[in-house]
Write a structure and sequence with these properties.
Elements (H helix, E strand, L loop, with lengths): L5 H10 L9 H30 L7 E5 L6 H8 L12 H11 L3 E9 L3 E8 L4 E5 L2 E5 L5 E5 L8 E4 L3 H4 L5 H14 L2 H4 L2 E8 L2 E6 L4 E5 L4 H14 L5 E3 L7 E3 L2
Parallel strand pairs: 1-3, 7-8, 10-11
Antiparallel strand pairs: 2-3, 4-5, 5-6, 8-9, 9-10, 11-12
């Protein structure tokens, strides 16, 4: 048998020498694609950050206000303190809402909503007064939870005045003035709408002695603030049944009474 040629022996020697093989074209292509993909992700991330924080496009250009009744939109905008030109993404909506409630006590709640690409919306819910308390010739508005939130020169139309005539021993005891105010507010909140329009005064002598003074010399003994819905329903029916009566008692809603025709 003829021996191998000099060229064949040289090729086997080269293959057996342990030198690295050249990379395969497919593997090299995958490596390049991976590098390109990583670069694209980095560039996209940097672009997004710039778009949100550095670009002139996604910035506050308007602040809209809705839901106000007594407050003006200008008052709400000023209290919100949102600067035009601020990147939308950087605004702390919870902080804006807290700032509004702190500066404007008339606000009960507020939703702060980003309106992409250029707006902020402030959806305000104002407190509704159910009572007013006289103070130094003016009146303090009180909502249905007993929160005193605003001082006005004249009581709002249809809102009764609180008359608190509590003995000193009661005011200093377990049912103090603040708690009695909350009870009176809850009573005022539960008065049926047809009666509320005619209610001029809510009188409180103790926690279970709340009465209403109506137009035409009529009165209602309400009792405590408990079972307010039942008392409201009972009073509506009682006033229809005894339309000429002047005094109504719903302190025990299951046993109402009327008198003085």
């Amino acid at each position: 048998m003829a021996g191998s040629t000099t060229a064949e022996r040289g090729e086997r020697k080269h293959l057996g020498s342990g030198s690295p093989r050249p990379p395969r074209p497919g593997r090299l292509l995958r490596s390049r694609m991976l590098i390109i993909l990583l670069l694209a992700v980095v560039l996209a991330g940097c672009g997004s950050i710039w778009l949100l924080y550095g670009s002139p496009w996604l910035r506050v250009q308007r602040v809209s206000v809705s839901g106000t009744r007594v407050l003006t939109q200008a008052e709400v905008r000023e209290a919100a303190g949102v600067r035009l030109g601020t990147p939308l993404v950087s605004l702390d909506t919870d902080a804006i809402a807290a700032r509004l409630r702190q500066k404007l006590s008339r606000i009960d709640s507020v939703d702060v909503v980003r309106s992409w690409p250029h707006g902020i919306g402030l959806k305000v819910t104002e407190r509704t007064p159910v009572l007013v308390v006289g103070k130094g010739g003016k009146f303090v508005e009180v909502d249905g939870e007993g929160v005193r939130f605003a001082t006005v020169s004249h009581p709002p139309v249809g809102v009764p005045v609180l008359e608190l005539t509590v003995p000193r021993t009661v005011g200093q005891g377990r049912f103090g003035t603040d708690r009695l105010l909350r009870e009176a507010a809850r009573v005022a909140r539960d008065i049926p709408a047809a009666v509320a329009r005619d209610t001029r005064t809510v009188k409180v002598r103790s926690y279970d002695s709340v009465s209403l003074e109506l137009t035409g010399g009529r009165s209602v003994l309400w009792g405590s603030d408990e079972k307010g819905v039942a008392k409201s329903t009972t009073l509506t029916a009682l006033m229809k049944a005894a339309s000429r009566a002047r005094h109504f008692d719903v302190s025990v809603p299951t046993a109402p009474a009327s008198s003085g025709s």
